Amino acid sequence: MSMSKETKKANAVPLWVKPTLSIAEATVYSGIGRDKLYELTDKENCPFVLWLGNKRRIKRVAFDQFILDSFSF
To answer: What's the topology of domain 15-70?
Structure first.
């Protein structure tokens, strides 16, 4: 049985609640471009990437901290 689009939207979890984000979700969440996120997550010591096989997920809390630490006010 497939769910309708309305049901899927009603059951959608907000990005700021999810523990991990896809690259596409992280782009929407942060405003940082896809290519830049790939560049950042390719670094060996990236603190907010979680590799699942060959897929990368963004640890949201660590990503938030990275953004806060990277901003210069």
So the answer is: Molybdopterin biosynthesis moea protein, domain 2 (3.90.105)
